[in-house]
Design brief:
Layout (H helix, E strand, L loop, with lengths): L1 E3 L2 E3 L1 H4 L2 E5 L2 E2 L13 H17 L4 E4 L9 H11 L2 E3 L1 E2 L16 H14 L10 E6 L6 H17 L3 E5 L2 H13 L7 E4 L7 H9 L3 E4 L7 H12 L6 E3 L6 E2 L13 H12 L4 H8 L1 H7 L6
Parallel strand pairs: 3-5, 4-13, 5-6, 7-8, 8-9, 9-10, 10-11, 11-12
Antiparallel strand pairs: 1-2
Helix pairs in contact: 2-3, 4-5
Zinc ion (ZN) binds next to loops.
């Protein structure tokens, strides 16, 4: 099953989905706490974008905004009820400097315990449970802080059976993360490489996919050509069952009037999809990637 903000949903009922999006993000001064905003205003601004996505036939929406960047499970619950979209939120933390103040002080095990508690008991007093673990790793050689966050994610994922969605830009960081996960016998199919399309090339994508890692081509929106090439390459290599496509779109920018400039969520289905079909990608394949693959990637693994 998939853990949505309204409760568990069966894999088969999750439907066509956008695997990496954001309703709201607050890139605030990292030395201060996230800012206040008017939740009703956010819902009013964002609902039409979500309605338009729903009208394309999309049913699932995976929200990748972590705590300290504006994660708001109650906002997602309200929008899920208003739009009929299955929405999924997360536990986990982002990267320095956008980390809660206790990040430095806590050990890997203590951080994992915070996330495990949310997975089991829900987020704060909301009763809403996270459906995956969101982390971010710095590019290049991993910092001590990033290694600790990754270690916490491995521990929390092994305990909760949730998948890890990791913002990871570039092959150096991804290779180092892979080596750490392998050394700790972590199941690589429980790791989604977010922003795999922002890195450096097809070889590393193929190599990671072959090792079990999910390849998230989530930069679709501003341009399509690159992602079509990457998708065709992974399909040709027989790795279509390791791929996710999405837009990293939205979002309501906290601190800007009416949320500032919002990028729409429907482009994946209204623009990328026909463009991919025209370039020779089978429509059934796109259907499988946006439906079965998303469900397989983010479903809560059954525990032995
Ligand atoms: Zn994102």
């Amino acid at each position: 099953m998939i853990q949505t903000v309204t409760g568990p949903v069966l894999d088969l009922d999750f439907g066509k989905a956008a695997a990496h999006e954001h309703v709201l993000v607050d890139f605030h001064d990292p030395s201060e706490a996230p800012r206040a905003y008017d939740r009703a205003d956010v819902a009013t601004v964002m609902r039409p974008y979500l309605d338009t996505l729903r009208e394309t036939g999309c049913r699932g929406f995976v929200d990748c905004t972590p705590i300290w960047l504006g994660r708001d499970p109650e906002l997602l619950l309200e929008l899920s009820q208003l739009t009929g979209l299955h929405m999924v939120t997360n536990t986990g933390w982002y990267q320095a400097p956008m980390l809660p103040p206790e990040a430095d002080r806590l050990s890997e095990e203590e951080i994992a315990a915070v996330w495990i508690d949310e997975a089991i008991n829900g987020i704060g007093s909301t009763g809403i449970k996270p459906g995956f673990i969101k982390i971010a790793l710095n590019s290049g050689k991993l910092s001590d802080s990033a290694r600790k966050i990754l270690g916490a994610a491995i521990l929390a994922a092994q305990t909760t059976s949730l998948v890890v969605v990791s913002h990871t830009v570039g092959s150096a960081a991804m290779l180092e993360a892979q080596a750490i996960m392998q050394a700790r016998r972590f199941d690589l199919s429980q790791f989604i490489w977010a922003h795999a399309d922002a890195g450096d090339g097809l070889d590393i994508q193929r190599q990671m996919a072959a090792s079990g890692v999910w390849i998230s081509l989530d930069g679709i929106g501003s341009r399509h050509d690159q992602q079509v090439i990457m998708l065709k390459d992974l399909i040709a290599a027989g790795l279509a069952d390791r791929v996710l496509i999405s837009q990293d779109s939205g979002w309501y920018h906290v601190g800007e009037p009416k949320g500032g400039k919002v990028r729409p969520y429907h482009t994946l289905f209204t623009e990328f999809w026909p463009c991919a079909v025209q370039s020779g990608i089978d429509e059934n394949m796109l259907d499988q990637i946006t439906t079965a693959n998303v469900a397989r990637a983010i479903r809560v693994r059954s525990r032995e």
